[in-house]
Structure formats: structure tokens, C-alpha cells
Amino acid sequence: MRCFFIYNPVSGKGKIVKKLDYIVRQLKEKFDVVDVYATKCSGDMERAAREAVGKYDVIVFSGGDGSVNEIVQGIGGADDAPALGYIPCGTVNDIAHTLGIPRKIRGAVKTIVSGETAMVDCMQINDRYAMYVVAAGAFTSATYNTPQSKKKQIGRIAYGLEGIKKNMKFDVFDITVRCPDEIVHTDSVFVSIMNGRYVAGLKMNRFSSMCDGKLELAIIKQKKNPNLFKKIRAFIALARLFLLGYRVKEKQIIRYEGDYFEIDSQDGIVWNFDGEKGLEGKVVVRALPRKIKMIVPKGTQDI
């Protein structure tokens, strides 16, 4: 079997570079060929993954949730993509949490060497892809606007500080959601479509599955030109959604479950794909059931 190991040398405070010899040595015990590539810039991981399709049986990669997104962008259009082995070393590692992949390097490598393959869902957004969350509105720009230097220094706290600095205005925007059997139009401050259990390190969607072909949509409503009280009320609704979960009883949250959503939003609204800056404007979001082959710990039942 042929393995292609792609790693981000700056993710996770450079931990992968320090353990590189160990990782390659362990991979060579399982795979006949192990080729190694260090990414050099944003988008490099996506390009490398796309070029690996058809040449390798397994792509092993390291990085954070954004790195997972790059890999999925690279292989999402392939009919028979390689299996993916993931070594999480990002700031929050939401996808690893959901899939039960150990966050320590040795544990993650052991999973790749001795684990099993699970077929998990992902999302297609227009002609792009995402693994676990598509979101727009309050705080969603923090993950891609936070400087890498701050992430290295203070980890996930950096996201909170950047979010507070850039998003406390709680800008209100129009949104129209078309589900297979309903159309909803509202003003909102936040919208999220989820395929995983964890978002921003919190178990926001605890009863979901990445193998059920369904997505969970949450919208926080807000009228235009809100007064201070209404702004505070929206902030509380957002906090309750993240801290208490998708099914929390909250009047300002609209919820839907399904496998297909068309969402129209006003100009300038940017969608966040797995923590990375995505598209602007209208998006069509589809669940792609069991599209991605992920190597997970042996005996994993609850994904």
C-alpha cells in the first residue's frame, strides 16, 4: 500500500516537525511506500491532496480543522478517493473530537497504523466542500482572521479575543432558507449548518451523527436596528446554543434537520467552511452520505 503524508509545519506550535522521524518510522511499518510533503502556503494542502488521488491508497495529514477542510476540498470531487488518516494538531480539533481520534500524536499515529476505515458524511456547498460546519454571522470570521502568532501563544482563547474585537456589533442580515418542504425568511445574526458534534471546541450538536446523511441547521433571529436589550438577548441566545447545544429551548433559535438547504443571503455575507473563509452570497448545501473514508480507532461505534 502507498501512503502520502502531508503536514503543516506551523500548525500546533510546530509539534509535527519535532515528531516527524517517529511518525514516518511508524507509517513505514504499515505501508510499503511513504512519501512526505511539507506544505508551504495556504491552499498547498488542497493541491497536494488533489494530485495524490489515484496515486496513493492513503493520505495521512496533520494540522487543524482547516487542514481537514483543505484535504476534503482536494479529494471531494473524486469517485474513489484515498482513505484519510488524521493527526490533529490544531487549536480546537473539532473533527478529531467527533471521530474519537486521539489528540496526542502517538495516539493518532497508532490509530492510523492499527485502526479501521469508517465511511463518514461530508457537505457539498455549491462546488466546494466542508466536513463538519458551514456558518455565517457573529464570530464566524474569528477562525480565519486570528493571526497564527496569537494561536501559537494562547490557543483557543485567541479565537474568543478576535471574535469579541471584530463581532460585538452583531450585524443583522437577511436570510432566506429553502428546505424541501418549507421556505423561511428572517433577519438574523448567526446561521450554522452542522455535520459534526463539536463546534469551537464545544459539544454543540451532541446528538448528531456523521454517518446518518442528515444536517442540522440553526438560525439566531434578530430584527434590524436592534436596541441594546435586543443585542444582549441575541448574544445570550448564541451563548446558549454553543454552551447548551443545538436542542436548547430558545425562542430566538430556528432549527431544521435535513439533507438539502438553499440559503440566500445579502451581499457581503461570508460563509465559514470548517473554520476557513468560504464563499459569499447564495449557497446550496447538500449532505453527501458516506463520502469520505476516515481511519478511526478500532471498535469505534458512535460517530
TrEMBL record:
<dbReference type="InterPro" id="IPR005218">
    <property type="entry name" value="Diacylglycerol/lipid_kinase"/>
</dbReference>
<dbReference type="GO" id="GO:0005886">
    <property type="term" value="C:plasma membrane"/>
</dbReference>
<keyword id="KW-0067">ATP-binding</keyword>
<comment type="similarity">
    <text>Belongs to the diacylglycerol/lipid kinase family.</text>
</comment>
<keyword id="KW-1208">Phospholipid metabolism</keyword>
<dbReference type="GO" id="GO:0004143">
    <property type="term" value="F:ATP-dependent diacylglycerol kinase activity"/>
</dbReference>
<dbReference type="InterPro" id="IPR050187">
    <property type="entry name" value="Lipid_Phosphate_FormReg"/>
</dbReference>
<dbReference type="GO" id="GO:0046872">
    <property type="term" value="F:metal ion binding"/>
</dbReference>
<dbReference type="Pfam" id="PF19279">
    <property type="entry name" value="YegS_C"/>
</dbReference>
<keyword id="KW-0547">Nucleotide-binding</keyword>
<protein>
    <submittedName>
        <fullName>Diacylglycerol kinase family lipid kinase</fullName>
    </submittedName>
</protein>
<keyword id="KW-0443">Lipid metabolism</keyword>
<keyword id="KW-0808">Transferase</keyword>
<dbReference type="GO" id="GO:0005524">
    <property type="term" value="F:ATP binding"/>
</dbReference>
<dbReference type="InterPro" id="IPR016064">
    <property type="entry name" value="NAD/diacylglycerol_kinase_sf"/>
</dbReference>
<keyword id="KW-0418">Kinase</keyword>
<dbReference type="InterPro" id="IPR001206">
    <property type="entry name" value="Diacylglycerol_kinase_cat_dom"/>
</dbReference>
<keyword id="KW-0594">Phospholipid biosynthesis</keyword>
<keyword id="KW-0460">Magnesium</keyword>
<feature type="domain" description="DAGKc">
    <location>
        <begin position="1"/>
        <end position="129"/>
    </location>
</feature>
<dbReference type="InterPro" id="IPR045540">
    <property type="entry name" value="YegS/DAGK_C"/>
</dbReference>
<dbReference type="Pfam" id="PF00781">
    <property type="entry name" value="DAGK_cat"/>
</dbReference>
<dbReference type="GO" id="GO:0008654">
    <property type="term" value="P:phospholipid biosynthetic process"/>
</dbReference>
<dbReference type="InterPro" id="IPR017438">
    <property type="entry name" value="ATP-NAD_kinase_N"/>
</dbReference>
<keyword id="KW-0444">Lipid biosynthesis</keyword>
<keyword id="KW-0479">Metal-binding</keyword>
